[in-house]
Write a structure and sequence with these properties.
This protein is an alpha/beta fold and 251 residues long. The protein is built from six helices and eleven strands. It has two domains: 181 residues, Rossmann fold (3-Layer(aba) Sandwich), CATH 3.40.50.150; 55 residues. It has a seven-stranded mixed beta sheet with strand order 3-2-1-4-5-11-10. It is globular. The protein starts with 6 loop residues before the first helix and ends with a strand. InterPro entries: Methyltransf_25, SAM-dependent_MTases_sf. This is Methyltransferase domain-containing protein. It holds the Pfam family Methyltransf_25.
C-alpha cells in the first residue's frame, strides 16, 4: 500500500531540507510579506522549513498539511525554539479554518501535488475564501521537463543515529492530456547492513503553462497578478527550468 509523506519520507525531508534551508524562497517570501501585520497561512507547511523562519521574524503563521508525521515534526521544531503556530491536519484542496488571512503562501511547487485539475481549482477557491479582502496568494510552480519513464535514480542519507536511508525513484506514468506525472518512491532504512524499515510512496506532480495558470487564477477571482521567476519579483520567466511565482489578490 502506498504512503504519502509518512515516517521515512518525513525523516528524509528533515535531513535533506532542514529548517531555514533556502532555495532563494525564504528570503523572497520574507521580503514579499514584509508589510503583512495579520495572519499568514501556509498550506503544505511540512516540517516548518519556511514557516519557522517566518515565525522567528515575528510573523503570525498558521500551517496545514495532510501528513500527521510532518505536522508532528513541525510542532517539535516550534517547541524547541519556543515558538507557537496553529497547525491543522487538513487537505489543501478542501479545508475550513476559523480565520481570514492577510496572505496565503505555497512555496517551492507544493501546490503541484494536486494532480487532479478539479481538486486544484477547488484548492484555489478555498484559498480565495480564506483570504481577507485585499489579501494575497503567493504560490510557486515549476514546469516539468523529465518525461523518461523507467530509469531508477538512487539517493542516500545518513541519519544522526548512524542509520542509512536510501531512496529509489522511478517515473512510472506521464499523462500528457491531463498534465501530470506519477513517480514511485521506495524508501529503505538500513542499520548494520540490515533492512529495518521501508515505505513505498506514490508521488504525483501536475504541470501548468505560465499563462494557463494566470487564467485559472483569474477565473477563480484573483486580480492584480504578478508573475516572477527564480525569486526575482516581476521578472517574467524565460526558461523551462525556472521557479515561477504568482502573486495575486482577492478583490
Amino acid at each position: 500500500m502506498f504512503s504519502f509523506y509518512s515516517k521515512l519520507s518525513t525523516e528524509v525531508y528533515n535531513i535533506d531540507k532542514p529548517i531555514g534551508h533556502s532555495f532563494g524562497d525564504v528570503e523572497f517570501y520574507k521580503e514579499r510579506l514584509n508589510a503583512v501585520k495579520g495572519r499568514i497561512l501556509e498550506p503544505a507547511a511540512g516540517t516548518g522549513r519556511i514557516l519557522i523562519p517566518l515565525l522567528e521574524e515575528g510573523f503570525i503563521v498558521d500551517g496545514i498539511d495532510s501528513s500527521p508525521q510532518m505536522l508532528d515534526l513541525c510542532r517539535f521544531h516550534c517547541e524547541q525554539r519556543g515558538l507557537r503556530a496553529d497547525l491543522y491536519e487538513k487537505n489543501m484542496q478542501a479545508f475550513s479554518l476559523p480565520h481570514k488571512y492577510e496572505a496565503i503562501i505555497i512555496p517551492t511547487g507544493s501546490f503541484l501535488l494536486l494532480e487532479n485539475l478539479t481538486e486544484a481549482i477547488n484548492g484555489l477557491k478555498c484559498f480565495y475564501e480564506h483570504l481577507a479582502i485585499g489579501g494575497r496568494l503567493i504560490v510557486d510552480i515549476f514546469i516539468q521537463s523529465n518525461f523518461n519513464t523507467g530509469p531508477i535514480s538512487t539517493r542516500t542519507w545518513s541519519t544522526p543515529e548512524g542509520d542509512l536511508i536510501t531512496l529509489n525513484e522511478s517515473l512510472v506514468e506521464v499523462n500528457f492530456i491531463d498534465q501530470y506525472t506519477v513517480s514511485h518512491l521506495r524508501y529503505e532504512k538500513w542499520r548494520s547492513n540490515q533492512l529495518i524499515q521501508t515505505e513505498l510512496e506514490r508521488f504525483p506532480l501536475r504541470w501548468y503553462g505560465v499563462e494557463e495558470f494566470r487564467l485559472i487564477l483569474e477565473k477563480v477571482g484573483f486580480v492584480d497578478i504578478t508573475i516572477s521567476s527564480d525569486y526575482r519579483f516581476g521578472i517574467y520567466p524565460t526558461d523551462k527550468n525556472q521557479i515561477i511565482t504568482f502573486e495575486a489578490y482577492r478583490k
